[in-house]
Design brief:
Layout (H helix, E strand, L loop, with lengths): L1 H6 L16 H8 L3 H17 L4 E7 L8 H11 L5 E4 L1 H11 L5 E2 L6 H6 L2 E4 L2 E4 H14 L8 E2 L1 H19 L6 H8 L3 E2 L7 H10 L6 E2 L1 H17 L3 E7 L2 H8 L1 H8 L9 E6 L13 H6 L11 E5 L2 H15 L8 H20 L6
Parallel strand pairs: 1-2, 1-9, 2-7, 6-8, 9-10, 10-11
Antiparallel strand pairs: 3-5, 4-5
Helix pairs in contact: 3-15, 4-9, 4-15, 8-9, 11-13, 11-16
């Protein structure tokens, strides 16, 4: 009977009826009760009650076409401005399409039921139900090719430095055009949030870098620097007595790149660590189809990506990110005061030195596999 009482100690299901005066936070706390509504509530509460503590370093991964849908403007930039995001891993496509908004190019609501042959004939590109003029691609390509010819780009660099330098120019372009608070890259530049791309060649930004290489441009991606630098961010959080959180929007390569920081630290560098402390994912992928997007926190524990002792502080919400992220953002901004930005981009060289020093000290005591 005592065991039965323990199992039935959860809050009684007796929600307040929704009324015209019900706030979003009340709606989430009182009416998102079960199934994926319940998981979204748990994610919101975990984020505001534990993840947003000052000593937690928050990494966010972005996959899918989120910026074309306006989520960079509506949700991600406010999260950065509130100090709720410390570093990001994104597909290059999200950053390429983010650039359209900063340089004054528009995207429009459309329909998923359009005649794509007709759209092609009219020079219109479709991302599901988002329409935009094909000339936007040409104009954005022109912008990147002209920008990346600049002397400051004539070297090998990590993707975080590339995005920071691009963000600086987009920030200035926003001021000139009056399009402030439109670009995720510009906001990341302003708040010192490093943004990495796990597959830098897999986007129009990467294709433009490749095209310029054919003409002798010296810009190259240092992917090893990205791996070591991102791991250094996580290790520093732990070594200074803090914690690390992984917020996964979708899945794919950005998800793995964010989470692989821990296997890189533990398995490859042989440094003592236990895994990320907090895990929140919004995904519509099932775990049984072999795709990484559906891989569960429990599976991540087996790789050392998630601290097994912190597994209760992991939430997977099986819902479209375009539904979850606006609600998640609005809840967080209403429930938690702004945090002081950690400005990890400004610290990345020092943090890289720290992980290098610890690895070299360990290297002298072990035989590499």
């Amino acid at each position: 009977m005592a065991k039965k009482g323990k199992l039935l100690k959860g809050k009684k299901i007796d929600p307040k009826p929704i009324s015209p005066s019900t706030s979003l936070t009340e709606l989430v706390d009182n009416n998102f009760i079960s199934y994926n509504g319940g998981r979204l509530r748990e994610a919101c509460q975990l984020f505001t009650e534990k993840v947003l503590q000052d000593n937690v370093t928050v990494g966010v991964s972005l996959s899918g076409a989120l910026t074309p849908a306006g989520l960079g403007i509506s949700a991600l930039i406010p999260l950065i401005e509130y100090g709720f995001v410390d570093w990001i891993v994104s597909t290059g496509a999200n950053l390429y399409h983010d650039t359209h908004f900063a340089i004054g190019l528009s995207m429009h609501r459309g329909t998923p039921n359009a005649d794509d042959v007709l759209l092609r004939e009219q020079g219109i590109v479709r991302i599901y139900d988002i329409f935009f003029d094909y000339e936007i691609l040409i104009s954005t390509d022109d912008f990147f090719r002209e920008l990346l010819k600049s002397p400051e780009f004539q070297k090998e660099m990590g993707s975080s430095e590339l995005h920071y330098r691009v963000g600086k120019y987009l920030c200035e372009r926003e001021k000139i055009l009056g399009t402030e608070r439109k670009s995720l890259l510009a906001a990341a530049y302003q708040y010192g949030v490093p943004i990495y791309t796990s597959s830098p060649g897999d986007s129009s930004i990467g294709m433009n870098v490749a095209a310029l290489a054919l003409k002798g441009n010296q810009l190259k991606f240092d992917v090893s620097l990205d791996v070591n630098e991102s791991a250094a961010l996580v290790l520093e959080a732990k070594r200074t007595g803090g914690k690390s959180a992984a917020i996964i929007l979708g899945g794919g390569s950005p998800k793995n790149f964010l989470l692989q920081t821990e296997p890189h630290i533990q398995e490859v560098l042989s440094l003592s660590e236990k895994g990320h402390d907090y895990f929140i994912q919004f995904t519509d992928a099932r775990p049984d189809t072999g795709g990484l997007s559906g891989a569960t926190p429990g599976e991540a524990v087996s790789w050392g990506k998630i601290d097994p002792d912190q597994l209760p502080d992991s939430v997977v919400c099986y819902v479209d990110t375009t539904i979850a992220l606006p609600l998640f953002t609005a809840y967080a901004l209403a429930k938690h005061p702004p945090r002081k930005p950690k400005r990890l981009f400004d610290q990345r060289e020092r943090l890289l030195q720290n992980i290098t020093k610890e690895f070299k000290e360990k290297f002298g005591k072990i035989k590499l596999r």
